[in-house]
Predict the structure.
Amino acid sequence: MENNEIARAIVLGASALGAGTAMIAGIGPGIGEGFAVGKACESIGRQPESSGAVTRTMFIGCAVAESTGIYGLLVALLLMFANPFIGKL
Amino acid sequence: MHITDFLRGSPDGIDVKGPGVLCSFDIAGVTINLTETVVISWGIILAVTLLLAWLTHDLKTKDISKRQVVAEWIVTTVYGLVEDSMGKRWRWFAPYIGALFTFSITGSLVSMIGLRSVTADFNAPLAWALVTFVFIHGTNIKTHGLGGYLKGYIDPVPVMLPINVLSEVSTPVSMSLRHFGNVVSGMVITSLLYFALSVVTKSIGVAFLTIGVPAVLSLYFDLFSGFMQAFVFIMLTMAYISNADGRQEA
């Protein structure tokens, strides 16, 4: 009984750490999207008439670049709200 | 409260649930759950159909009404978008794109009237992505022939086969996960925020933070994010399908 409680606490603690660690994945998209938006601003500054197409392409690119971050987020959410390891105790 | 109860992830208030099951049927040993998502989806389909029926009844060529102007604007915009991104040859494709966009955006925005977002259930974006997946491969086979299509998997060298298959399979997965993840993250962050605001309100006793802050965040997470993801979804659909077509646009 006592052991089970400790095992549970360890799993939950490790899951919380894992959720936090998974969010390190947010760094990549952050840097990448910032870079993409910076470049888009530059190109709009150079060619203001093409701002519509540039903005559209930039948003699509950002959304695609964001997907790795989203995967990290999903893993974090899974660990926090639908923990698969607790059931295995 | 025991410490492990707290660690379980649901201290009162923060609890993220999947869509509720309203009732389930047993058909030939397979359990079919009638979830919130299904019911709300049918509600959306009905509402959108009625709205469009109202917009498009009694069309004229002269003395057009405001209603008809709106309907024409919607149709021209969608057709224009498809022609811009895929070329004139793909004009016939516009209804699918329009339907996808409408369903996606209304599915995300139903959260504004207190219902659960349809897109916050992974099944909904996955279904759309699978339809797109069928379209991509159908187009590919239509253009290159079955032989050419299969040959594409061992291009440039046969060793690449597993990687090519993996990249094809990951297309619908990443498309649907992106949409789902964005909407769900918005939902989770909003519920975390509500929890935090309620704690703050309880501790100081004055509910001044709960007035403006949720509205601003909802503007971003519901309106902007919902619109953005719907747009990205249709843009990617068009990009993948015209890419599968392969022929250069004149």
About this structure: The interface with chain A takes residues 3-4, 7-10, 15-16, 174, 177-178, 180-182, 184-185, 188, 228-229, 231-232, 235-236, 239 of chain B (CB under 8 Å). Chain B is about 70% helix and 5% strand.
